Amino acid sequence: MPTHVSHFEAQDALAVKELIVQGLAERWGGYDPQFNPDLEDFAGHYGSSVILVAKRGSRIVGVGVLQPEGAGTDRIVRMSVAGDCRRQGVGTQLLQGLLQAARDRGCRRVVLETTASWESAVKFYGSRGFIPTEVRDGDQHFVLDGTRS
């Protein structure tokens, strides 16, 4: 079944939360809502952001958020792909959509971070042109200048 990327709609909120929680539980061995208050009101928390969802049929299989960070800089957060859909191009489609949104907004730089021990995520971003800048508090930080895809 093909994957279709579209903008987040209010009715997507529960499925998006479940997808992200499932990914966090898989990576961390559990989920603690006190460390993720944004998931309790996803649409409200990310209201000024670009939120893209990847769907296969009616099932949400991926999500990514592009937040304004400052003059000419946006930040990608909450990238998540369902476990059974990884390594099938879903993350790439979401990332390309977010980078296009950044270009459309006139953004010149995109930054992001991921847990440094999540080798697959670190490799994913590195292979798509993001440059590692530092590891801080267990997180690998990246930058992409020019928002090329």
Description of the molecule:
The model has no long low-confidence stretch (mean pLDDT 92). Strands 1-2-3-4-5-7-6 form a seven-stranded mixed beta sheet. The protein has one domain (4-110): Aminopeptidase. The protein has helices at residues 13-28, 42-45, 90-104, 119-126; strands spanning 4-7, 50-56, 59-70, 73-81, 109-115, 131-136, 139-145. The protein has four helices and seven strands; from the N terminus they run E-H-H-E-E-E-H-E-H-E-E. The chain is of the alpha+beta class.
**Helix-strand sequence:** EHHEEEHEHEE
Low-confidence stretches: none
- What count of structural domains? 1
Give average pLDDT, whole number: 92
The tally of beta strands, per DSSP, is: 7
Oligomer: single chain
Give a quick account of the main beta sheet: strands, pairing sense, barrel closure.
7 strands, mixed
CATH H level: which superfamily? Gcn5-related N-acetyltransferase (GNAT)
What percent of residues are in strands?
25-35%
Please give the share of residues in helix. 25-40%
Shape annotation: globular
- CATH class categorisation: Alpha Beta
Strand order of the largest sheet: 1-2-3-4-5-7-6
Q: Give me the CATH architecture, please.
A: 3-Layer(aba) Sandwich
* Secondary structural class: alpha+beta
Please name the CATH topology: Aminopeptidase
The radius of gyration is: 14 Å
N- to C-terminal separation? 24 Å
Number of helices: 4
Which helices and strands, and how do they pair?
Layout (H helix, E strand, L loop, with lengths): L3 E4 L5 H16 L13 H4 L4 E7 L2 E12 L2 E9 L8 H15 L4 E7 L3 H8 L4 E6 L2 E7 L4
Parallel strand pairs: 4-5
Antiparallel strand pairs: 1-2, 2-3, 3-4, 5-7, 6-7
